[in-house]
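hi! just following up on the protien thing from before. the input was this:
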Amino acid sequence: MANPMKWANALSTRPSLEAAIKEVVERAQQSLSMPVDFGLLFISSAYASEYTRVIPLLKQYLSIPVLIGCGGGGIIGMSAQGEAQEVEQEPALMLSLAHLPDVKVCSFYIRPDDLPDLDSPPEAWVKLIGVSPQEQPQFILLSDPFSPGVNDLLKGLDFAYPDSIKVGGLASGGAMGLPSGLFYLSQEQPQASSLYREGTVGVALSGNIVLETIVAQGCRPIGPIYQVTKGEKNVLLELAAQDSNQMTTDQSPSQQPLVVLRDLIQELSEEDRQLAQNSLFIGLARDEFKQQLGHGDFLIRNLLGVDPRLGAIAIGDRVRPGQRLQFHLRDARTSAEDLELLLQDYQKKAAQATDAAGALMFSCLGRGQGLYGEPDFDSQLLRRYLKDIPLCGFFCNGEIGPVGGATFLHGYTSVFGICRAKD
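and the predicted 3d structure came back as:
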């Protein structure tokens, strides 16, 4: 390809906001040395009191058609030495500039009140975004964590753009009670270029671009797979165990979920029993027709509480009779093994693909050094398998990525979006 796609990233840890912006602009532009089509900015909450200065300073130092960004409790990027780096609880600012030949970049800002009703036709969502589904756009979404409707937005975009990938995260880390920040800069919509405190900023990328995803939920299953035989809203009322072929039989008696869970915990090792005290989750199968369920087939959700009187368990998602589930545990070792397995699978599948040009990383605030006991773990593991790939991202209040063909808002997850030109 004569004019290939290229991403250039720069990270600054200068305590002065203006000095940090000037540094990353100079370094990223020098590294790119091509026309800039799109930019991403992730900024530490250490600068939260100065968020209003970000857009004016960017306009002063950088001319760019489209840029979106947000604040984060931690920033992920590339050091001056070209190493992946995760900066947590310290000042940091990450700028990514992209040269995207033959790619259409459509940017948007969506207020919570702009969202159509979920029973609206697809055309309402297409009008909101301004891109035809036939263009098969790839979405990057950054949202305020306190605005309502993020899940509705994801459902609506899946409805209108079923063949499109959506990745992103919720802004995080407002210091001293300050609200989070979303940044939007567009030469075509200069009146809309601003700092926003609610809603969603995003881009739809269409044309000569592919966005591939890795969604590392960091859990391992324990016990058998069960089928929901009775449930109401987000409350599990009865479960039935499946046989070795993962099919529920007429002989499988329904039991109270709390009884099932207590019996399961008794069979665990002492180490896992201790882990289950505070790191127990529910995995919901996303494919109701797939017989053999395995790694990556479950959407991980929180266990919210129990009702000993009914033997019921409340979880962080709606349930329905017939749905399959499995209990899961999470710890540092499991999270590391989960991500490495996913990276190995991706490396095998992408072996014949065009080289990746850049990667986005949206990681939960609950991961990072607090989980692994060492810095830069997820980012450096990615770079071990995808060598020399420019990486940018932040630590989120919730991560956006696909599981089983649908897009969800996750927790305790690392979502990677890997960008490359089409084969």
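Residues 332-349 form the longest helix (18 residues).
The chain has a mean pLDDT of 92.
cheers
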